[in-house]
């Protein structure tokens, strides 16, 4: 089960990033182009938030079955940067990022004009993306290096 969750979570990263970039593209184009907020934009807003929530749930499931975190204790993790990253920093930053994204999505849905809807979506999705980019264990990360894709084994 662990390797399947790890594979799905690794794949989900790209779905979240792609969805956020697409959603931000629509939001910035709509905001600066003074376009109407269409049903497609609303579906994009909702779909990006849904994909992010699924990814977060996969991450939580992975957190609880990960051999890396099976015997996690914060006092010991201070000496193990990878364990500290996945045990505290990654899960906390990703949770905050999805909360930010969710708030932005909910606020954008409730705005009265297209311009404010797009602006709200653009700014909150951008903040969420920045948090996500900081918390991903990229291959070049000094905190915890992981490959771009994890295959099930």
TrEMBL record:
It comes from the Bacteria. Keywords: Membrane, Transmembrane, Transmembrane helix. The chain crosses the membrane at residues 6-25, 46-65, 85-108, 120-140. This is Cytochrome B.
């Amino acid at each position: 089960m662990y390797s399947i969750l790890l594979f799905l979570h690794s794949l989900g990263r790209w779905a979240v990033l792609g969805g956020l970039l697409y959603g931000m593209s629509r939001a910035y184009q709509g905001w600066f182009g003074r376009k109407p907020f269409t049903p497609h934009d609303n579906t994009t807003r909702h779909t990006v938030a849904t994909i992010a929530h699924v990814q977060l749930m996969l991450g939580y499931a992975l957190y609880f079955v990960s051999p890396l975190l099976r015997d996690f204790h914060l006092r010991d993790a201070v000496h193990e940067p990878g364990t500290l990253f996945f045990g505290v920093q990654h899960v906390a930053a990703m949770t905050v990022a999805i909360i930010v994204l969710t708030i932005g999505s909910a606020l954008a849905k409730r705005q009265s004009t297209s311009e404010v809807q797009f602006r709200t979506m653009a700014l909150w999705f951008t903040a969420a993306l920045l948090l996500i980019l900081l918390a991903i264990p990229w291959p070049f990360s000094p905190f915890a290096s992981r490959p771009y894709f994890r295959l099930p084994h």
